[in-house]
Amino acid sequence: MSRPHFSIIIVTFNSESTILDCLNHLVRASVNEAIEIIVIDNASSDSTVSLVMRHAASHPHSTLIENVDNLGFSRAANQGISVASGDFVVLLNPDVIPSTGWLSRLAAHFRDDVGAVGPLSDQVAGLQRFPLYYQGQIAGETTVDQISDSLFRQNGGKSVETRLLIGFCLMVPRRIFETEGTLDETLFLGNDDLELSWRLRTRGYRLLVATDIFVHHQSQASFKSLSPERSKRLVQESTDALQRKLENYYGVRKVPPPLELWGIEWFTPTPRSATTLADTAPSSAIVSIVVPVHNQLNYTRLCVESIRKNTNIPYELIFVDNDSADRTAEYLRTIPDARIITNRENAGFAKACNQGIKVAGGEYVVLLNNDTIVTEHWAQRMVNAAAAFPQLGILGPCSNNVTGDQKVAEARYDTPAGIEEFAREHYQKQAGQVEQVNKVIGFCMFIRRSVIERIGGLDERFGNGNFEDEDLCVRANIAGYRCAIVREVFIHHFGQRTFEDTGVDYHQAMRTNWEIFRKKWQLSSEIEVFKTGYPIGKLIRRRFNPRQHCCPLPERVEVIETLPKKTTPAQSPPAVQLTDDWLNNSTSGFESTSKESSTSLYLDLMKRCLANWIYGPDEGPAFDPQKRMEGRDWPRIAHSMMGLKRLDNLHFCVEDVLTTGVPGDLIETGVWRGGGTIFMRAILKAYGVKDRCVWVADSFEGLPASKS
Fold first, then answer.
1. pLDDT tens digit string along 530-566?
2. How many CA atoms does the CB half-sphere of 512 hold within 13 Å?
3. Predicted structure pTM score
4. Helix/strand/coil (H, E, C) string of 498-543?
5. With contact defined as beta carbons under 8 Å apart, do 608 and 645 qualify?
6. What is the predicted pLDDT for the residue at 504?
7. What is the C-alpha to C-alpha distance for residues 341 and 319, in angstroms, rounded to an integer?
8. How far apart are CA 349 and CA 364, in angstroms?
9. What is the DSSP letter of 45?
10. What is the DSSP string of 295-359?
11. How far apart are alpha carbons 53 and 12 in whole angstroms?
12. Are residues 474 and 534 in contact, defined by beta-carbon separation less than 8 angstroms?
């Protein structure tokens, strides 16, 4: 058969009462047209599939796609659109009876600025009700063709512009689906036509009702196969999902009324006060930002400050602290509205992300490395891209330090202000550019909630990182979503800081996790992945199997710290300010930070010197790291036996005294080697404190005499 001119997409679910009649009339009504029929069955429990197969046996231009689970109308329709080859795509309900010549008559109404065309019918709302345009009486035995022919004689070539085309029968040029995106898969049942109509109109396309074509519509036959309670719930969920999308576009409480958007009054989202995005999260959060951390406090501070400064949509911050040994835990508690999960051991990057995802309540979840600096409007622009292209499940930005297509080779700057300036210039060059790819890198992954609901989280077998992001993207693709680079968004990435801090061989970790990935996906051992890559295109064409491709999230996660809004504890250390006294490093961005950050770096180095923890395992005296951390060994060469954790506590206490203005000097009692005294003097020196001194009380001599 030659390439079809029309691809007719029919989604079925328990449609045995209407589907055969629909298909038979469809074939007869399109006898002179080059068509292909693509039926996608959403796990019908009746005889729908066998009826479709019987029909397809005698019609070679018919295709059946069977889904193991009910994926919802939008996702199933998108499956059909993805394999359609016609110039025009027609979304047709299985309870529609078309009229002879309907396809050519619909197509005749298209112009360059027309995005979609729909016919008249007897069971439809709005401007598509045929009595508005039909002159004459309808006899009881009048056929569909007779009504349509009469309309064509009266209104041939005429159409009216509308704000809404109902989805029971809708023709769209395939090129428009390719450029503007397919149906929004967050809408499981209902409202897909409202969303598509709204999106096309906001992109400058006109919607037309062809007043010279009639099709019969039985109306919502598939809905009737569901219980009224379930049908109502699913439609309401889709309504609320669309409302959130509109709020992303217009702003919360700024969405125009449905009469203005579509000319209807029956779009009724749940009132805002009663809607929550999740039981565990603020109802206003559009984006949940999950940041796993393990030490590297200075980078975490910079990341947090950039999020606060540059995120202009409602968001929540979720930190997963993987047993940090520096002052990270104390710092996180000073962040207003932070939601903190604390692990007593380093659980690994993948597991930490899953813990954060579990408690996230936003419509989108961002997995963000703590060694990043986000830039102006980053989150809003990512949301805009996701909203514009509903088929996109995982999105990533561009960066200076990332592999593959996301890397911006020309990124050059010497200061934090330089990052912002470069990001603005980059936006001006790349505004509106969204590139579909097979995968995005995990330093910043912007994930649609429906992806998580379908495939779960990261595969925790990948531990501390590498290939867990690729694995997630492969599973998302198999599940029907797509990945994309939002080219207009630029984020600075230092890169590999946690690997360096923990002493992990990054390249060996890559090789180890590649083997996990290769075996999981049954790839050849002869693949030289670091030279030639691997055949991801073949992987993503596999059939989705929930048992194989879903990685469940943990059943329960304890959020141990949530600070109330607009409160800053007295012990909060000064925030890192993004000043301009940074030095550039050509590989990873900035080596030193601001004065405040330099102070922290100096004091962290002082602690390591005191505990004799400044050498690698092959350079200095051997010791047990866990015991040295907790102060349970007696180092032969060291200025202190306190251990890093107790030095961290001392660091916090002295800074607390300074920032809250507690009067008086400092004293170390029970001195052995004097490490505590040295460190307290270092803190005073670092902060330029000259009106306090440090006293030393020897264990054998007691306290010094009072000056008074």
1. 888 888 888 888 888 888 899 999 988 887 655 555 4
2. 12
3. 0.48
4. HHHHHCCCHHHHHHHHHHHHHHHCCCCCCCCHHHHCCCHHHHCCCC
5. no
6. 60
7. 6
8. 19
9. S
10. S-HHHHHHHHHHHHHH--S-EEEEEEEE--SSSHHHHHTTSTTEEEEEESS---HHHHHHHHHHH
11. 13
12. no
Average pLDDT over residues 431-453: 92
pLDDT at 418 over 60: yes
Residue 515 pLDDT > 50 = yes
Tokens for 285?
A: 């959060």
| Element containing residue 421 per DSSP (H, E) | helix 416-430
- Alpha-carbon distance of 489 to 428, in angstroms, equals 10
The one-letter code for the residue type at 81 is I
The pair of structure tokens assigned to 448 is: 């649609």
Q: Which amino acid is at 16?
A: E
| pLDDT of 124 | 86
Task: Answer for the pair 648, 635: CB distance below 8 angstroms, yes or no.
Answer: no
The token pair that represents 201 in the structure block: 């109109």
Angle between the N-to-C axes of helices 506-520 and 468-478, in degrees from 0 to 180, rounded to the nearest 10: 30
Q: What is the DSSP letter of 551?
A: B
- Please give the full DSSP string across 209-246, using - where no structure is assigned: EEEEEEEEE---TTGGGS-HHHHHHHHHHHHHHHHHHH
- For the record, the structure tokens of 702 come out as 């007691």
Residue 211 clears pLDDT 80, i.e. is over it: yes
How do 96-97 and 482-493 pair as beta strands? unpaired
Q: Is 559 exposed, middle or buried (0-12, 13-18, 19+ CB in 10 A)?
A: middle
Question: Around Cβ 138, how many Cβ atoms within 10 Å?
Answer: 13
Report residue 12 as tokens.
Answer: 């079925």
User: From the CB of residue 394, how many other CB atoms can be counted at a distance below 10 Å?
Assistant: 25
How many residues does this entry show for the chain? Answer: 708
Angstrom distance (rounded) from CA 57 to CA 329? 66
Q: Which amino acid is at 291?
A: V
Q: Where would I find the beta strands (DSSP E) of 1-87? A: 6-12, 35-42, 62-67
| Phi, psi of 247, deg, nearest 5 | -65, -35
Cα–Cα dist 648/645, whole Å: 5
Q: What is the 3-state secondary structure (H, E, C) of 374-418?
A: CCCCHHHHHHHHHHHCCCEEEEEEEECCCCHHHECCCCCCCCHHH
Structure token pair of residue 533:
């890559």
Which has the closest alpha carbon to 212: 137, 102, 124?
102
Q: Please report, as a single letter, which amino acid is at residue 602.
A: Y
Dump pLDDT digits (tens) for 121-132: 988 878 899 888
Q: What are the residues facing 293 on neighbouring strands?
A: 321
pLDDT score at 280? 36
Amino acid in the structure at residue 215? V
Residue with tokens 């001599």: 701
CA distance to 111, 207, 228, 261, per residue, from 162 (Å): 15, 6, 30, 10
CA distances from 656 to 334, 346, 647, 675 (A): 12, 27, 14, 19
Q: pLDDT per residue over 639-691, tens digit each?
A: 777 877 788 788 878 887 876 678 889 998 877 778 888 999 999 988 888 88
* CA-based nearest residue to 304, from 364, 391, 371: 371
Lowest mean pLDDT among 72-81, 196-205, 520-529, 558-567: 558-567
Is the pLDDT at 28 greater than 80? The verdict is yes
pLDDT of 542 = 87
Q: What tokens appear for 49 in the block?
A: 């599939």
